[in-house]
Design brief:
Length: 950
């Protein structure tokens, strides 16, 4: 097992460590490594952010749940690629040999402050002694959205819209004539292409094509904007070889991934090149050099952002895509995607590593490692005005929310990383006593600089360059740097692989803090007892090969930050704000430059301290055919950065934030695996499940504890709490509603009728209110659920017989509550122009449908759409993450063609999903930047591919 600064036999590991091999990552039709790792390791969690399935999106990674709520802090794990910090998604999945996950403080503490919330150790493939081997793998893949809402047809939409409008106190949005036109269009009555009715639109008196309530086409906007079975491809080539002195490996990969967007160009291209050589210079000296290069190019329409995903559902199906003259119809986003400009992003990453190992005497090794990495990133966005067309064919310019003049913005960033590790270890065995000691030093330096510029009024859109803009030039730049240093030591002891001990000590320093708080000690200790090696256990030794109890304790400091502001980098500096002549201060009729007071420096700010206890059990039975492990842990994050104390306004500035919050995460993990072979038939199964919850232990509040808001952090709060009302039901008559109002009248809404929601009065005051929304006075609100994903699991089944191989992998969450709001869930919500209608929204209350799921619709989001038990979603799910079938040709055939192995396969990711969640939403990607469901969909991808080895 790969561990910090070395490897250990699995039987001797005393920390919480999980490992997966290359078989989990290879031949998956995925864009990046995180997609392939999801569900493979217990306690390793991945979350799609608000960008959903966008081609360049990377999922957030955590180990063992939420680790910190500190202001500006992150709880992401440290990711090391061949020992050097890096981006796991910069790797080609086919270049990875193994992934080890260090989850507790004892196993991660050797890496110091960067490893407060665990470590992911990625080992890439190396050359092996023997003849030169050439490997090729490639596939052609086809992608479709995993989940898209089912838009209703125009007739159902018009009827639903009229019901919602009348319930809101307005008249019909579609009169009988409009309804008749919709019916005629859907029935094919308008079949003459020379007539405008054929396109579902007629011209108004203002020479503009009528849309929305004046149009009568039948457009499914999700099918219009998203394609199905979009082709992409990936190809990988590697060569390796060596002898007893030198081994080498070269690899190259190319991924061309097309997006689902139908209009505009949406494509990601990634190129990777890796090289590694290892040479035994002498019996006492070894050197290894590796180089990695990655380039990614991503192009998309600049309009492909949160606003676009917000707008899709707001477009009425009655609106056509084109007008009778063949132009894109006004205001339907197609012109913005096709003609509104593009965003081009390029990332170049170049990593160099050089490692020396010296062995002066047997058992004593000296390691000297050096690495440097350069990241270059640029993003260029062109925004062009778009045009609509009058009925007579003349065009007019419209504002799509980003202006009416052509503009260009250009951003460039360069980041450098340097690392040095020098450490020595000595191993000695005396009889059954085995001892290993290690002592070392680590130094890392990070630096980044960026520059951004923009301008407007391009001379010509054909050449969108900054030098051709004429107005509003803007230029800004920034530079940051930071450094960390640490001294570390580790002692391993075991007696006959029976009694195991490990001690770690790290002394870390960070440039982010002042001298008095810069350095700190972080210790850890772990122990194990392999009961199966005891003499009294011998009668069972043929059945149970390993039965190891483990326990560990450790402390680590956390300096991880989003680093998105000057304060986050250097909290002991403050900058004075300076305003330009656009201020509101007038002197002698002129606006003046201004300066504002800087904030107060907090000279005592220091590390978050993460303390972890872990107890585990490893077992192996039946000649190691059945293996598994169990861990229970408690992780306390102390001195998180919280809100500043409230001081009088006479001070002139805010008090600084400080270390004043504590939280605790507890959980458990279980993993079990079975592997066996019966004749030519090999088969196996692997299951893992993990659970974690987090609770606030201390959060600053001035005043009575019970006056704290239930909508913010407070002492004792469990992260993910959902407060809401208990639903009594939907009133089936006005009499039932009036009877309910006598003893349960809400303090919001009016004109309550049959079809509206009835909420329960829990505190007996004959009103339904939220009180003061505090712990002491929360009215009729109560905790109705929790959005924390519980019992994350993965299940892999595999089999192989005479060249035929099969595997299927399931991943999911067994328990999760989720409250979704907005039009994607409710349909009519928030006003006429913020609402939508999908198939499931048609199941609303009416006199003919009193057993409906939804209440009567109306254009508003207050009365029936309060957070409540009836519509709290069950977001648990199980997803068939991958299914793969392959066939390897017999060697007797392939060797005749000079090939040692040929395998063809079919693979599919995200094949199907079982969930209790509303069918509008994907349980893995629900939250867009503009609201629930409003984001780029994840993809179901199937591929046919081939592996060839020469």
């Amino acid at each position: 097992v790969v561990v910090g600064y070395g490897t250990q036999k699995k039987v001797n590991v005393t920390g919480a460590v999980s490992m997966v091999g290359s078989e989990v990552l290879e031949d998956r039709p995925v864009t990046n490594v995180t997609q392939a790792l999801q569900g493979a390791v217990p306690g390793l969690n991945f979350t799609a952010n608000t960008n959903g399935g966008m081609l360049n999106n990377s999922m957030a990674i955590t180990i063992r749940g939420t680790g910190s709520i500190g202001n500006g802090s992150t709880d992401s794990p440290l990711i090391l690629i061949d020992g050097i910090e890096g981006d796991i998604n910069s790797l080609n999945p086919n270049d990875i040999e193994s992934v080890s996950v260090l989850k507790d403080a004892a196993s991660a503490s050797i890496y110091g402050t960067r490893a407060a919330f665990g470590v992911i150790l990625v080992t890439t493939k190396s050359g092996k002694a023997g003849k030169v081997r050439v490997n090729y793998s490639g596939d052609v893949r086809f992608s479709t959205a995993t989940q898209l809402p089912d838009m209703v047809n125009s007739l159902d939409f018009a009827n639903y819209w009229n019901v919602a409008s009348n319930n809101s106190g307005s008249g019909d949005q579609f009169n009988s004539e409009a309804i008749e036109r919709i019916k005629n269009y859907m029935n094919g009555v308008y079949n003459d292409p020379s007539q405008s009715e054929y396109y579902g639109v007629i011209a108004g008196s203002n020479n503009r094509w009528g849309i929305y309530g004046s149009s009568f086409a039948n457009t499914d906007w999700f099918k219009e904007f998203y394609k199905s079975n979009v082709p992409s491809t990936q190809h990988n080539l590697s060569m390796s070889g060596g002898n007893d002195k030198v081994s080498w490996m070269l690899s190259a990969g190319y991924l061309m991934n097309n997006g689902l967007i139908r209009h505009g160009h949406d494509e990601l291209d990634r190129y990777t090149m890796n090289g590694k050589i290892s040479a035994q210079l002498a019996s006492w000296a070894k050197v290894e050099y590796s180089t990695k290069f990655m380039r990614s190019d991503y192009e998309r329409p600049q309009y492909l952002s949160g606003l676009f995903f917000h707008n899709i559902a707001r477009r009425w199906p009655t609106c056509p895509t084109v007008d009778p003259n063949g132009h894109w119809i006004d205001g339907m986003e197609i012109a913005e995607l096709e003609d509104g400009g593009t965003t081009n992003q390029r990332t170049n990453q170049f990593t160099q590593q050089l490692n020396f190992t010296f062995t002066p005497i047997k058992g004593w090794n000296i390691h000297i490692d050096g690495a440097m990495r350069n990241n270059f990133y640029k993003s260029k966005t062109d925004m062009f005005p778009v045009y609509s067309y009058y009925a007579d064919g003349t065009r007019w310019q419209r504002d799509s929310g980003y202006g009416t003049v052509a503009s260009v913005s250009d951003y460039r960033s360069e980041a450098d990383y340097f690392a040095f590790n020098g450490y020595t270890d000595y191993t000695r065995s005396i009889g059954s006593h085995n001892l290993k000691g290690m002592l070392g030093v680590n130094f890392e330096k990070y630096g980044t600089n960026n520059v951004s510029a923009s301008g407007t009024d391009l001379i010509t859109n054909d050449f969108p360059y900054l030098s051709l803009t004429q107005k509003n030039p803007r230029v800004s730049d920034a530079y940051w740097h930071r450094a960390t240093a640490g001294y570390f030591a580790r002692i391993n002891y075991d007696y006959d692989s029976k009694y195991l001990m490990e001690f770690n000590l790290r002394y870390d320093g960070s440039s982010r803090f002042t001298n008095d708080n810069r350095w700190a000690w972080f210790p850890s200790v772990s122990a194990g007892w392999n009961i199966a090696r005891e003499g009294f256990f011998k009668p069972l030794s043929s059945t149970i090969q390993t039965l190891k109890l483990r326990a560990s304790w450790g402390q680590l400091g956390n300096t991880s930050s989003n680093y998105n502001s000057f304060w986050a980098w250097y909290p002991f500096y403050q900058q004075q704000g300076v305003g330009s002549q656009s201020s509101t201060w007038l002197i002698n009729g002129s606006r003046q430059n201004t300066a504002s007071l800087p904030g107060i420096v907090n000279s005592t700010m220091t590390w978050e301290t993460v303390e972890t206890w872990d107890v585990g059990l490893d077992f192996a039975l039946l000649n190691n055919r059945l293996t598994g492990s169990f861990d229970w842990y408690s992780r306390t994050t102390k001195d998180m950065i919280g809100p500043a104390p409230v001081l009088g306004s006479v001070l002139g500035t805010d008090a600084p934030r400080t270390n004043n919050c504590d939280m605790r995460s507890t959980g458990w993990e279980f993993e079990i695996q079975w592997r066996d072979q019966i004749g030519d038939f090999k088969y196996g199964a692997k299951f893992n499940v993990a659970d974690a919850t987090s609770k606030i232990l201390s959060y600053p509040y001035e005043g009575d504890f019970d006056n704290q808001s239930i909508n913010s952090y407070y002492n004792g709060k469990k992260l993910g709490e959902i407060w809401g009302y208990e639903t009594e039901g939907i009133a089936n008559s006005d009499e039932e509603m009036n009877s309910w109002l006598e003893n349960n009248k809400p303090n919001w809404g009016s004109n309550w009728q049959a079809g509206d929601i009835m909420y329960k009065d829990l505190n007996g005051d004959k009103k339904v209110t939220s009180g003061a929304s505090t712990l002491k006075d929360h009215g009729d609100l109560k905790r109705i659920g929790n959005s924390t994903p519980r019992f994350n699991f993965g299940l892999n089944l595999n089999a192989e017989w005479k060249g035929i191989d099969f595997s299927i992998f399931f991943q999911g969450v067994m328990k999760r509550d989720y409250w979704v709001s907005g039009p994607y869930f409710w349909g009519a919500s928030g006003g006429l122009w913020q609402s939508c209608c999908f198939e499931e929204h048609l199941d609303y209350w009416s006199e003919d449908n009193k057993d409906a799921y939804y209440p009567r619709p109306y254009f508003g989001n207050t009365k029936n759409q309060q957070t409540q038990t009836r519509y709290l979603q069950n977001a648990a799910y199980v997803r068939c993450k991958n299914i793969q079938v392959g066939y390897t040709l017999p060697r007797s055939l392939t060797e005749k063609a000079g090939m040692s192995r040929v395998r063809a396969y079919f693979s599919c990711d995200n094949l199907f999903t079982l969930t209790g969640l509303s069918s509008v939403f994907d349980p893995e990607a629900m939250d867009g930047s503009w609201g629930n469901g409003k984001l780029y969909p994840l993809q179901r991808t199937w591929a046919i591919g081939m592996n060839i080895t020469f």
